[in-house]
Amino acid sequence: MKRIAFSLVTLATLAGILAFTPAASGDADEEAAPIYGIKLPAGYRDWALISVANVGGPINDIRAKLGNDVAMRAFREGRLPFPDGTIIARLAYQQVTSEENNNAIRPFAEKQLPPEQVKKLLDGSFVAGPPTNVQFMVKDSVKYASTGGWGFAQFNNGKPADEATIKTCFACHQPAKDHDFVFTRYAP
Amino acid sequence: MKRIAFSLVTLATLAGILAFTPAASGDADEEAAPIYGIKLPAGYRDWALISVANVGGPINDIRAKLGNDVAMRAFREGRLPFPDGTIIARLAYQQVTSEENNNAIRPFAEKQLPPEQVKKLLDGSFVAGPPTNVQFMVKDSVKYASTGGWGFAQFNNGKPADEATIKTCFACHQPAKDHDFVFTRYAP
Question: Which of A99, B8, B48, B182 has the least C-beta neighbours within 10 A?
């Protein structure tokens, strides 16, 4: 049990259930994340949406992928590999139940569904709770030549994650090699 | 059974499981949605992210709320009621399994979790599939005075939803009256 509890921390770090409060981004004196030397990109929270996803328990998060202008253009044009200057941001939040939302859905659901299906509908409905962490992929085919042209970073509460965490990024993205190591597809 | 199948269409219309392909927005000759006369807002797909959410089966969607500049400022300042000019967009997608994502997560999960928890993690992980529909709330305290200052619209495949659908919007938003009829909270 102890082994499982401990190792969950590693999985949590990978997928983002650490406490997190977003910091203002773009400060020149901000700390860079290890290995790839990436700082929190300025203005990333205003970037356009690439797509959304979620990860099941014990992670239980709901996440949005945002892209800078270079990224959005590449996604929309279906351009591969992604050009230098591409930055993809992954924002993750704890997936939580909203009683307010469920109270709104319930009367409509009850008119149209048997009780067990109403329960299934509401039990499976979630909103974004507290943020967990933010991850980035930055394309620079020269600087990051040894990792497919991508640099990786993660920030917890505005602070860079440790080296052990960042070391896992590229290996985890290998299954997406045929899509330039990017899992996310553009959601129109 | 027939009754359930039929009524599911109504619920589906409300929550968005109709087939949908996004159209270019902002054309002057575009058709306006009924009742409130709202056209597909130009450039909405590039707006910033307010938050993300999902709705359980039989709807099974994953959704993003985007806001225009007026909306984003109001959300970030916690301003209520939302000022005139606010537009909130709700984009919804079928929630589907990504084998590629699951193949990436599996080896890490298997090192750290017992098999039944790996299954739970992967079974609960989804990405955005085909889009369903897009809904909008537009704030105009004069024009839409009788519905809390909000006009509502839904577009399926770029085409406005019918009047019966749009008629349900304001009633459904009543439980959020204390938050100016807006369910979504800003996700930092």
Answer: A99
